[in-house]
Amino acid sequence: MRRIVRWAIGIAIVLALLVFGLRYWRHSQLYAGTDDAYVNADVVQVAAQVSGPVVQVAVVNQQHVMPGQLLFQIDPRPFEIALAQAQANLDLARQNVGEGAAAVVAARAQLAERQAQLANALSNLRRTRGLTSSGFLSQQTVESTQMSAQTAQAAVKAAQANLVQAQNAAGAAGEDNATIRAAEARVAQAKLDLSYARVTAPTSGTVANLTLRPGTSVQPGQPLFSIVSDREYWVDANFKETDLARIHPGQSATVRLDMYPGHPFKAVVESLSGGAGTAFSLLPPENATGNWVKVTQRVPVRVRIVSPDPRYPLRIGTTAAVEVRVS
To answer: How would you label 8-45 residue by residue, b for 16+ Cβ within 10 Å and e otherwise?
Structure first.
């Protein structure tokens, strides 16, 4: 009986090993997995667009913010003064354009007057020549009248030149005038700079690395803190190069985070990296040596989480395990 029991136990163990081995083999044919994976998301670096002292910080570290929510306020007074000055310059530009238009009207009126005087002088010259040929007037009178006509003609040319000069100085009429457009551009820039004094959240997410305090002087383009966006999360899963032939964009996947071992997340493969992780490192390995040892490389695969659950908030940099359904 003991021998029979031993044989039965041995057979049972062999059968169990066969069953588990078959299941493991079958699972490896259907899925490719790795536990070398890390949660990631878009991280927005918040920076000021204008310089100045900070007068208000409206958020705290690790606070969740929504798009358009105030983050901090730069002293707006210099920008308000610049806007008022730009508005005043615009009013002056419109006034100058109006004066230029009036100067053009006056130059046209003067030209019309000089043209009328020339027409009158030419008419007098014709009459004088007729009377001189009849013997009623002397030749001296003709010469005097001709001189008056030449003077009137020169006055017309001068008036024409004055009109051209007035038109060039005045430029285009109304709001199309270059001076007005330049002044309007300065007003728009001043308004934009004033709007930059209020720095708002560009996306929804969590504030991170906030050390900004009121009184701090900020400069344009200087990163001040970060916002970890909650619009999209993905996992950078480092698969062995031997698994890549079976992994393609669009395949479904399951992500299990070490933070929430009992709550799997649905995911989908988005893309495969163009090279192994070592290829993009700061100091890539030099394999052309006599001590080379072949090591299976890992290639990053981006797996997007399609079912984020607010009850299980995700944290970038945390570890995960990923399984991709490959068949």
So the answer is: eeeeeeeeeeeeeeeeeeeeeeebbbbebbebbbeebe
CATH class of this structure's domain 77-194: mainly alpha
CA-to-CA distance for 5 and 25, rounded, in angstroms? 30
Encoded amino acid at 310, one letter: P
Q: Write down the pLDDT at residue 54.
A: 95
- pLDDT class for 100, splitting at 50, 70, 90? low
SS (H, E, C) 158-217: HHHHHHHHHHHHHCCCHHHCHHHHHHHHHHHHHHHHHHHCEEECCCCEEEECCCCCCCCE
Percent of the chain with pLDDT over 70: 85
**CATH fold for domain 33-75+205-325:** Elongation Factor Tu (Ef-tu); domain 3 (2.40.30)
pLDDT at 134 over 70: no
Six-digit token string for 156: 């017309």
Does residue 166 contact residue 100 with C-beta atoms inside 8 Å? yes
Backbone torsions φ then ψ of 295, nearest 5 degrees: -130, 130
Domain locations in the chain?
A: 33-75+205-325, 77-194
Q: What is the pTM of this model?
A: 0.69
